[in-house]
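Q: Hi! First time doing this. I have a protein sequence and I read that you can turn it into a structure. Is that right? Here it is:
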Amino acid sequence: MKLIGSEASPFARKVRIVLAEKKIDYEFETEDPWGEKSGIWGNNPLGQVPVLLLEDGTPIFDSRVIVEFLDNASPRGKLIPADNRERIEVRRWEALADGVLNAGVLIRRERTRPEAQRSTEWTDRQMKKIDAGIRMMAHDLSENAWCAGNGFTLADIAVGSCLDWLAFRFPEINWRDSQPGLAKLMTKLEERTSFADTVPKG
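A: Yes, that's right. Below is the predicted 3D structure, encoded as structure tokens:
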């Protein structure tokens, strides 16, 4: 299989961590979806990364769809529980983390526009989502060792990818100091090879 993404994309990183945790071999092809001559459109009509190309060339896109496919492709280290209630809890964490990331990406794109065209109201609305999302993560994690249940799951991968990208792109938010519970979780995640080998770059 081939994964198309960028080293800075938190959504591609989430998939790369899942691939590493599941011990699935793949080829990683970097692609800038914002580049003028980006080839991503040939594999995803939405022009977004990541895209997973299966052996027969079938493209799978949207990170949430890809990670579900991968978790079912190998029985090793299940990351999404089979029980409906537990599964929904994990996917809820993932939706929250992805929502925070989407808000962050929108702010970054807004900041690339000419200053006269930027909307402070728009940026403030997206930042409100980030702040509220971090607070909910911290509240729901509380004193727990992991985001969902008693062990490492996709919820931790999604949250870890989200928080690390925020530290990378929005260091001024400084969630480590304001949310010690999340900082403790992130320290534990950073000890995993799958996280250490996929640090965002670019």
